[in-house]
Amino acid sequence: MPHLVTRPRASLRRTTRRLRNVLGCAVIAGAAILSPTAGARAAEPHVVEYGPLPTGPLSGACEVEFDLKGRLWVEQYLAGQFARMDPETGRFTEFNTPMPLSVPGGEEVGQDGAIWSTEVTGNSLLRVDPDSGAMRELPLPWANALSVKALDLPLHVGLGLANDISKGPDNAMWFTLGGLNSVGRIDMTTHEMTRYQLPTALGAEQALFGIIKPGPGRTMVTDMPLENKVYSIDVDTKQVTSYTMPTPLSFPLGVTTGPDGAIWVTEELAMKLARIDPATGKITEYPLLGVDGLLSGLLNGVSIGNPLPIPGPIVTGSDGKLYFPLNFAGSVGLGNRMASFDPATHRIATYPTPSSLSSPCDINNEQAGSIWFAELTANKVGQLVIS
Description:
Layout: E1 3-5, H1 9-23, E2 46-50, E3 61-66, E4 72-76, E5 81-85, E6 92-96, E7 104-109, E8 115-119, E9 124-128, E10 135-139, E11 144-147, E12 156-158, E13 165-167, E14 172-177, E15 182-187, E16 193-197, H2 206-209, E17 212-214, E18 219-224, E19 229-234, E20 240-244, E21 252-257, E22 263-267, E23 272-276, E24 283-287, E25 315-316, E26 322-325, E27 337-341, E28 348-352, E29 360-364, E30 370-375, E31 380-385
Antiparallel strand pairs: 1-6, 2-31, 3-4, 4-5, 5-6, 7-8, 8-9, 9-10, 11-12, 13-14, 14-15, 15-16, 17-18, 18-19, 19-20, 21-22, 22-23, 23-24, 25-26, 26-27, 27-28, 29-30, 30-31
């Protein structure tokens, strides 16, 4: 059954009205998180936190996603749950995945309006009804190792290890298959699944670090950190193109298509950003640490956060800048900063979270003027207000 937490309506109305006036949009907040822990500063970008989530510090709050009604969904991969926060009613609702300890991975709204996610250990995709919270498991048709459905137990495991899922330009959702060195595709009309082999023998790290996002044109891009490569796949021809990062052992992690039409990559261990020109294949790297990186701004008050700038997932903000956390769930440096990079001027800025050692995890750019994220260690939701 969903777990509901409510807050007195008068206080809720006052808080919601105040935040709407400041942010100029509906604030996605739950009953337990409607009071920000940082004051609003309208002049400059800043982080506002909401929380903590009632599940507790071991919930594994990481990725956030807005449904079509503006409600924020928080993936809690350690708890095997999703949390939905509704600003209109002030109700915070949690939903358990059908399989315990399923480790829900990435999430995104599909072409059908549902929330789509993955069960990393359950060898399945999940379709979540955003209104009722009802979940339907769609088992991956490959590498099923154990299923005890016949015994009426919700346990099933396999070797697909699907970690992330994203909407493609071809009426399909695409997802990583780290255990099979592949990417997968599910047709949104028929729900037929297909997998496409990548030219790699070391794909299993995608089970923890696999990210897949829309690429330039009609492509999808995905990371392969241990191989120091990024792959793109044409959704029509299924042609795969590989890009090797210039810095050895750079651990490419976050991938996205930037405002300039290029593929942008965060290199976690190299502490760099990389720009891939899809037309020529040329790769240009930008250090976040060193003379030309964040350290050059120390005299101007720029902090390096972790204390090392270990970049995670990356998105484009509504202001045309690239945004990424200076920490990721797999990193050892418990960071507390978000960062921006201007692809035109190459200027870098960082923004601290009110909570120290907050571990900002995956990020969302769907609301103009804000970058939303969950904080793994602090067990809170963060909002970087950029305008």
